[in-house]
Amino acid sequence: MVENTNPLSKYYRQPSIYIKLPSQGRYYPSNVFTPTETGEIPVLPMTAKDEMSFKTPDAMINGQATVDVIKSCVPNLKDPWKMVNYDTDTVLLAIRIATYGETMAINYTVPVTDEAQEHTVNLPALLEVAGKAIIEDYATTSKGFKIKIQPLNYKTLTKIQIARFEQQKIYGTIDNSELTTDEKQSAFAKSFDVLNKVNFSLLIDSISEVTTPDGETVTDRAQIIEFCNKADTKTITEIQD
Questions:
Q1: Mean pLDDT for the chain?
Q2: What was the pLDDT predicted at 4?
Q3: What Rg do the C-alpha atoms of the chain give, in angstroms?
Q4: Could you tell me what percentage of the chain is helix, strand and coil, using 3-state DSSP and rounding each to the nearest 5?
Q5: Helices marked H in the chain — which ranges?
Q6: Cα separation, 173 vs 62, whole angstroms
């Protein structure tokens, strides 16, 4: 068989930067992440199709555009939905550098004076800072509870961000509506209840196991949820911190 080789293939994009994930890939199963011998993974610049994905509002809100671009530019991350939060900033910064270069101009207006200013950000410096994320697998409360922490993945974070965004829209709609004061207060209370549940789910999703001061380890999800519901506020606040 004669192979039909495209003469333009030598002009296809190539990796522009190599990065080490802050998590070092230790939270990923083999079907999500492909490690390399050096620990560094290649990052390709965006294609024109990738750039158009970032210009689709709905895809940006639900996270699909970001996932598609990461899958295109970071082939070692086979399922970006399961990318842990430690690695998100590093991956997105690397894609920006690979595509547009090492600097990014930020335009802003000075408050009060309304003077327009421009600042150039050194992206490799930000990438270095992001790469030094402090990753802790365990935390101990003042009462002796030992909490094993698991990082949130991009899908969970997106779900939470969408819920918060929707509640903010509801809040603005209620505030500008012609409802009575009592009706507004009732609607606000329901909205705050939803946000509280979202924040609580964030806490639950971050806990892998709890070891009591007596040394007993609990991994059952229902028992951990019950503990977070019924423990004193100081203990839960320490776990959140």
A1: 88
A2: 66
A3: 23
A4: 50, 15, 35
A5: 48-53, 57-61, 64-73, 85-100, 123-130, 154-175, 181-205, 221-230, 233-240
A6: 21
